């Protein structure tokens, strides 16, 4: 299996790295963290102008056709810089609309995303142990449309999102629905997260919705699977960025007249981080490969779950170790590495923690259902 990026993906990586390194400074991060929406709208517009948002979408819809591979390259660079833009919810949602939506839905939603003038978000989590594909939120048919009722928890980056992709139970199984963020019956309750992002709890009371995909199709599973892989990509970048901070810190700081980097105990800590990050990256790209053609849903689900588990477990271990080797500086909430710690903690619980991932993987391997 060849995990080399190739020229197109390398170009995406290099351009994203250049823009993010230039724009995402500690000063800019502090400004965004006290803003209302907690999203760097200027950076979002810069990424759109550079063609990076469009790069992941299919060519028939006006994109460059790089798909999940292009998105994961972009997300890893975002994670390295902990850049406050809603790439994973907006673009995984957009890829699902491109793959499963009607021509009318694609033409209405995707152009605004590509040029940065509008975006969508995803509502996959609920309060309690409910799995994304066994939601308590319910949808019922209403003539040519649908009505949805339920509560979705910690919907990421609602600020600026005109539509929400919502998973809901139907008579034929889990479905995926498009809801306007300001529709009748929709209400929002702001909720700040560990990583300083501003999410919101979404309450739907008989809200009007459009179905994405058809009864019995895989639209909801498509979105959840891609979300697992996208979160793994962000976490890989977060962990790599944290390790880079640690290496620089330990080269510069001295104890007993020697650089901290020369102490064996510290070297072992960073070696463990490196091994975890490499495992995260290998399982991430194995999952990306499994999502490509020829596609097998079972293999893709297993690969995506393995990638998410490694990102959850290995990513959390890495940010903990990195904060530890920084000593007292690591707990300074304004010190750069602390943001990586907060992002790592937040991602490690999104869509379930390591225990939930292992339960999912066990169910996939044995063919049993995950308890909801």
Compile the SSE list and pairings.
Blueprint: H1 7-23, H2 26-33, H3 41-49, H4 52-55, H5 67-81, H6 87-100, H7 103-114, E1 119-123, E2 138-142, E3 145-155, E4 161-170, E5 173-180, E6 186-192, E7 198-212, H8 219-252, E8 254-255, E9 258-259, H9 264-291, H10 297-325, H11 336-349, H12 354-366
Parallel strand pairs: 1-4
Antiparallel strand pairs: 2-3, 3-7, 4-5, 5-7, 6-7, 8-9
Helix pairs in contact: 1-5, 5-6, 5-8, 6-7, 6-8, 8-9, 8-10, 8-11, 9-10, 10-11, 10-12
Description:
- The protein is of the alpha+beta class.
- It folds into three domains: 7-119, Acyl-CoA dehydrogenase/oxidase, N-terminal domain (Butyryl-Coa Dehydrogenase, subunit A, domain 1, Orthogonal Bundle); 122-212, Butyryl-CoA Dehydrogenase, subunit A, domain 2, CATH 2.40.110.10; 219-366, Butyryl-CoA Dehydrogenase, subunit A, domain 3, CATH 1.20.140.
- It has twelve helices and nine strands.
- The chain has helices at residues 7-23, 26-33, 41-49, 52-55, 67-81, 87-100, 103-114, 219-252, 264-291, 297-325, 336-349, 354-366; strands spanning 119-123, 138-142, 145-155, 161-170, 173-180, 186-192, 198-212, 254-255, 258-259.
- Strands 1, 2, 3, 4, 5, 6 and 7 form a seven-stranded mixed beta sheet that branches. Strands 8-9 form a two-stranded antiparallel sheet.
- A hairpin with a 5-residue loop joins strand 6 (186-192) and strand 7 (198-212).
- The model has no long low-confidence stretch (mean pLDDT 93).
